Amino acid sequence: MSGFSSEERAAPFTLEYRVFLKNEKGQYISPFHDIPIYADKEVFHMVVEVPRWSNAKMEIATKDPLNPIKQDVKKGKLRYVANLFPYKGYIWNYGAIPQTWEDPGHNDKHTGCCGDNDPIDVCEIGSKVCARGEIIRVKVLGILAMIDEGETDWKVIAINVEDPDAANYNDINDVKRLKPGYLEATVDWFRRYKVPDGKPENEFAFNAEFKDKSFAIDIIESTHDYWRALVTKKTDGKGISCMNTTVSESPFQCDPDAAKAIVDALPPPCESACTIPTDVDKWFHHQKN
């Protein structure tokens, strides 16, 4: 067990919906800044934002205090990814590695583009469908260099260390060998997933080839360095909320009571009163039309 827990506020699939993270003491924390990047030697924490096969585009709210998970909004409407044939929603558990940041002021030497201003993304390929807001421990296997509308947007490939087959996966070539076609599907999905919204296909560095585990860890650690500069105010965050409860060298550190006050000002926790559509596909179709 990770020791972390989550708490939903307001009903899912509404503009007010939020998922806040708590530590082992039940105190509210930031999933962006307060969860350690490393869970163990060469094992990273991952914040699950989107469970596999789901469509709602959930993400860490980098500009909100305590950075809860919320559904992305564009032009006042909640965002969903289309069911891009032949796929159903996201084809992995999707999320981010905490205490990382793709700096929009840094021009990446590999892609020739600056960072996308978010924590680094992770695609977890294990057999379990994780829950939104779940904190899992992952083994990094490789990385894909995507260029999204002119911004660097790395995609880490990883597997949950609790997965029954995790011991068989140690580098990107193991994914090619044990899940034939999965990496090709991953590139295809990322290339085309914005096309139904009228946007062009995404591009990739390295001719859309996945780099290995060692390369991936180097990239992750570089984004950790950018994050540290951000949270210690050595870099202009340009609107990012760096409020945290654990980073002692950060001028944005607050006490647990201040964090609780942020959450207490919001709608009450989501319990039985929050109705979640039982037929998600029908509900999604209704929302799109």
TrEMBL record:
<dbReference type="Pfam" id="PF00719">
    <property type="entry name" value="Pyrophosphatase"/>
</dbReference>
<dbReference type="InterPro" id="IPR008162">
    <property type="entry name" value="Pyrophosphatase"/>
</dbReference>
<keyword id="KW-0378">Hydrolase</keyword>
<keyword id="KW-0479">Metal-binding</keyword>
<dbReference type="InterPro" id="IPR036649">
    <property type="entry name" value="Pyrophosphatase_sf"/>
</dbReference>
<keyword id="KW-0460">Magnesium</keyword>
<protein>
    <recommendedName>
        <fullName>inorganic diphosphatase</fullName>
        <ecNumber>3.6.1.1</ecNumber>
    </recommendedName>
</protein>
<comment type="similarity">
    <text>Belongs to the PPase family.</text>
</comment>
